[in-house]
Design goal:
Blueprint (H helix, E strand, L loop, with lengths): L7 E4 L6 H12 L2 E4 H9 L3 H24 L5 E4 L8 H10 L1 E6 L2 H8 L13 H19 L2 E4 L5 H17 L3
Parallel strand pairs: 1-3, 1-4, 2-3, 4-5
Helix pairs in contact: 1-7, 2-3, 5-6
């Protein structure tokens, strides 16, 4: 059984709203917010697409694992992770063992709507972004569900509604620990 945890880690596909919801959740709780992708960009001084271009996805995943190790070592934080962060077993272990994991479920149509103008998405640099999102969803969705302490539908609900659902689930989980 998990220890009482104050940190909340948001997982899910690109376009699910992890950063937006994470900022609002952290503000509501009065704790720090971090976005692993933004922290990687801050630390390296270059954009995620540039890391992909020069180091490939494997180079990026290595940097991402180091950042998740660092960020999950902090107490009282809301962390928005990259959509593919759950692919590495060490990331899954750190997230599972160090905090409350929330899967923000979001259908492919909504992901496409939210990401189609975003040039900072190297995995969507393809002739058929919908197919790419569908393929990623097929691979990652079972991992998200298996890792999550709580699943929230972030496709239709407002950010405030999603935050309320997360807070209720987090409170219930922590009340079972006492």
């Amino acid at each position: 059984m998990k220890r009482y945890c104050t940190s909340i880690y948001l997982i899910g596909p690109m376009g699910a709203g992890k950063s937006t919801i994470g900022r609002l959740l952290a503000k509501t709780l009065g704790i720090s917010f971090a976005d692993s992708d933004k922290e990687i960009e801050r630390k390296t001084g270059v954009s995620i697409p540039m890391i992909f271009e020069y180091e490939g996805e494997s180079g990026f995943r290595k940097r991402e694992a180091e950042m998740i190790e660092e960020l999950t070592g902090l107490d009282d934080i809301v962390l928005a992770t990259g959509g593919g962060s759950v692919l590495l077993p060490e990331n899954r272990s750190r997230l599972r063992d160090r905090g409350f994991v929330v899967y923000l479920h979001c259908p492919v149509d909504k992901q496409l709507e939210r990401t189609h103008k975003d040039s900072n998405r190297p995995l969507l640099k393809t002739d058929n972004p919908r197919q790419r999102l569908t393929d990623l969803f097929a691979i990652r969705e079972p991992i998200y569900r298996g890792l999550a302490d709580c699943v929230v539908d972030a496709g239709q609900a407002s950010s405030r509604s999603v935050v309320r659902q997360i807070l209720k689930a987090h409170e219930r989980a922590n009340s079972r620990q006492h």
